[in-house]
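Supplementary Methods, section 5.1.

A reviewer requested that the exact input to the structure prediction be made available. We therefore reproduce it here, unchanged from the version used in the analyses.
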Amino acid sequence: PTIVPLSAAAVAAPQQLWSDDFSDSANWVIDHDITACALDWQIGTPTCQGSYQISDILSTTASNGYAMIDSDFYGGATGGSEMEDCWLTTKYPIDLNGYPDVIVQFEAQYRSFNNEKAFVVIGIGDGQGNVTWPDLDASSGTTNGTPAVLPNNVFEAFPDYGNGDQTDNPELITVNITPALAGLSSTELADLYLRFHWTGTWGYAWFIDDVSISVTPDNK
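The structure derived from this sequence is encoded token-by-token as follows.
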């Protein structure tokens, strides 16, 4: 058979619908479960402070800021006794009307320990910014290679990672969020929010930068 190479158009970069490079922290809302912990995400150019540090992210736009959760520093200070539960959420709604097949991409620097999960969550608003967010902890998601049943708006960022597994620095992570959009009304599709949700007990760290939402490329 004749092998026909893909055209340049077929392998072109995906069409971006939204992006953020963490140069303006006002675009994000930082929060945590006050009944579980006092740990928060940081936006800027923070460095890990704990005893088991991983390197700062070497992302494309690291110089103008990134996001980081330093579980090692916090867990070391608290003795690893808490189920850390914290999140980073877009402040303003994202409108995905007319785009049924969509991916989230971000550059990451991450190392896994043994009792934590990193999630990408799509918040579905009611047109007024009201969102019912899922309750997640380190028992949610994949366990010993066996995936759990998650809500269709919740996606594991590193589902196959085990003790000590680590990304490249940086590594481009792609998450297909299409299942979260299925069946939504136009009002809901115009009132979507992106959240990075960290939960676990005394892990390492998770850096994020250069986040985008794009149309899923042809032939992907």
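DSSP finds three helices and eleven strands in the chain. These observations are discussed further in the main text.
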